[in-house]
Design brief:
The complex is a heterodimer of chains A (474) and B (100). Chain A has helices spanning 4-13, 18-36, 44-59, 102-109, 152-159, 176-182, 216-226, 269-284, 300-315, 333-344, 347-360, 366-389, 412-416, 423-428, 457-472; strands spanning 39-42, 71-75, 113-118, 165-169, 185-188, 209-213, 256-260, 288-292, 392-396, 431-439, 445-452. In chain A, strands 1-3-2-4-6-5-10-11-9-7-8 form an 11-stranded mixed beta sheet, sandwiched between helices. Chain A has a domain at 4-247: Amidase signature (AS) enzymes. In chain A, 63% of the residues are buried. Chain A has 474 residues and is an alpha/beta fold. Chain A contains 15 helices and 11 strands. Chain B is 34% helix and 4% strand. In chain B, strand 1 and strand 2 form a beta hairpin. Chain B is flat. Chain B has helices spanning 7-16, 23-40, 75-80; strands at 85-86, 89-90. A two-stranded antiparallel sheet of chain B has the order 1-2. Classes of the chains: A alpha/beta (474), B mainly alpha (100). At the A-B interface, helix 9, helix 10, helix 11, helix 12 and helix 13 of A face helix 1 and helix 2 of B.
Chain lengths: 474, 100
């Protein structure tokens, strides 16, 4: 499939049209969606109207944006006005939001054509997309395996060539881990770089929207389109979007890159081998490589699995059967609330709500949630010390390649360990990118993770591009 | 910190979270939540009395805007999403018991 950049160039030049590119995208969706369960909803009518509008503007000589005519898939936890938005949960089934997320508004202003909403682990809680109320998504590279999660549908859409790019959200690795398992670029931007207005909240201090793509350049273009201050999100950074696509070819000459022991410990040997080879490639391209140990990273998983559920238990209190979404009747209001939530939430969501409620409850608050917040401070300090010695860090994205369905569903801790290398970045509010590099078991792709401090996206794209050039030869 | 999560604790937390659990679910969640909390115990031995907590990566305190009226969703649009509405308000089952 053509890159998003190429599609926009072709549409702008008249070599193609937005409608023709949309038809190509819809043809693949129609051919493979039943098998892979990627899209929960395809907005064919809305997409055709948006594409026709782009073509009409071009015919009239009106300028169109950098994503003109680019079909894009949207994770179904972002609101798009009038389009069913479920979070893959029964509790929101049939709900149509009355407004659009800022990212959707910005994408459409840049000429992109949203084609539909993709499957996820319910409320973005999971690492395999097996927690969806609407069935799991299959990995297009091997349909007997998971695509990763929670943004598994968006990753699969791009991996299956249904769309050249997609948006996901990353609270503990939910963009980077499926990107690694599906052989894609996936970016978790610095906290606050992208507005969360219209992103249905899971853990508000950790959630961040970011891109999936097959090329580094496409993710850079997508991210600079959706980034920048938004007055509707009080946590959005008070500054305009950075220029990113202009820095993709900057290279790594003179950069210090640290291989971090804790970001490969416990990974499968084939994953470690890919990281080791990536380090050699970056070294050959002019980077100076050092090795670091950051023991604080080992505590990330424990802190995350108290902080994220605590925030989730609070955010998900709004699903009470009163204002929107599902209602199951009860004889009084409390019985109605309980019946609604019991019927509407799946097992993993209930597990995390209860874990968070427990961590925040009287008598346990200091020991669990309070202690986790202090560990979070330690993690931020540890990263700061590391970035005093190195511009970027490198490690694995996920401990293994894509795993078979059902292999981790009976043991929550085993599933949570899929995110052990990605979680620290979210806790620190920093940036990271997963780059497909090398292969492992069964010829499936392995992901290499590059991490940087807040606002380091340009450097991350430049380093990722060095690895991409090695893999693709161009 | 203790990893001894009891069935009563899970039942209490479920009630606080407005979830109703079957006996089998209570059993399963007691075991699974206990395992997760046991993993979290690796933080309990840390001496962190002098460390300040971080609830937010930027340490934001207050973000204010000018007090200007802006358009927002209309009441009709919002109430149209509700499972039940009456006289311009959300409608819910009764909250108070019968009068004696």
């Amino acid at each position: 499939m053509k890159s998003a950049q190429q599609i926009a160039l072709d549409v702008q030049s008249g070599a193609s049209s937005a409608l023709r590119e949309l038809d190509a995208s819809l043809a693949v969706i129609h051919a493979r969606n039943d098998e892979l369960n990627v899209f929960l909803y395809v907005d064919e009518e809305g997409a055709r109207a948006a594409a026709a509008e782009i073509d009409d503007k071009i015919a009239r000589g009106v300028s169109v944006g950098p994503l003109a005519g680019v079909p894009i898939a949207i994770k179904d936890n972002m609101c798009q006005v009038g389009i069913p938005t479920t979070c893959s949960s029964r509790i929101l089934e049939g709900w149509r939001p009355p407004y659009s997320a800022t990212v959707i508004t910005r994408l459409m202003a840049a000429g992109a054509v949203p084609v539909g909403k993709t499957n996820l682990d319910e409320f973005a809680m999971g690492s395999s997309t097996e927690n969806s109320a609407f069935g799991p998504t299959r990995n297009p590279l091997d349909p007997s395996r998971v695509p990763g999660g929670s943004s598994g549908g968006s990753a699969a859409a791009v991996a299956a060539d249904m769309t050249p790019v997609a948006l996901g959200s990353d609270t503990g690795g939910s963009i980077r881990q499926p990107a690694a398992l599906c052989g894609l670029i996936g970016v978790k931007p610095s906290y606050g770089l992208v507005s969360r207005y219209g992103l249905i909240a899971f853990a508000s201090s950790l959630d961040q929207i970011g891109p999936f793509s097959k090329t580094v350049m496409d993710s850079a273009i997508l991210l600079e389109t959706i980034a920048g201050h938004d007055p509707m999100d009080s946590t959005s950074l008070p500054e305009p979007a950075p220029s990113l696509s202009a820095h993709v070819e900057d290279g790594v000459v003179g950069k210090q890159i640290a291989l971090v022991r804790e970001l490969i410990d416990g990974a499968d040997p084939d994953v470690v081998a890919s990281v080791t080879r990536a380090v050699e490639v970056l070294k050959d391209a002019g980077a100076t490589i050092i090795e670091l140990s950051i023991p604080e990273l080992r505590l990330g998983l424990s802190a995350y699995y108290l902080i994220a559920p605590a925030e989730a238990s609070s955010n998900l209190a709004r699903y009470d059967g009163v204002r929107f979404g599902l209602r199951v009747d009860g004889e009084d209001v409390e019985a109605m609330n309980t019946a609604t939530r019991t019927a509407g939430f799946g097992a993993e969501v209930k597990r995390r709500i209860m874990l968070g409620t427990y961590a925040l409850s009287a008598g346990y608050f200091d020991a669990y949630y309070g202690q986790a917040l202090k560990v979070r401070t330690q993690m931020i300090d540890a990263f700061r010390r590391a970035y005093a010695q190195a511009d970027l860090l490198i490690g694995a994205t996920a401990p293994s390649v894509a795993f078979p369905f059902g292999s981790k569903t009976s043991n929550p801790m085993a599933m949570y360990l899929s995110d052990v290398f990605t979680i620290p970045t979210n806790l620190a509010g920093e940036a990271a990118i997963s780059v497909p590099f090398g292969t492992g078991e069964a010829g499936l792709p392995t992901g290499v993770q590059l991490l940087g401090p807040g606002r380091s996206e340009a450097q991350l794209f430049a380093a990722a591009r060095v690895l991409e050039r090695e893999e693709r030869g161009s | 910190m203790t990893s001894l999560l009891r069935r009563e604790d899970v039942a209490h937390v479920a009630k606080l979270a407005r979830l109703s659990l079957s006996e089998e679910e209570l059993e399963l969640y007691t075991e699974q939540l206990g395992q997760i909390l046991e993993h979290a115990n690796d933080m309990s031995t840390l001496q962190l009395d002098d460390v300040a907590p971080t609830a937010h990566p930027f340490g934001l305190i207050n973000v204010v805007r000018d007090d200007i009226v802006r358009p927002s969703l209309s009441r009709d649009v919002v109430l149209a999403m509700a499972p039940d509405a009456e006289d311009g308000r959300f409608a819910v089952p009764r909250i108070m018991g019968e009068a004696p």
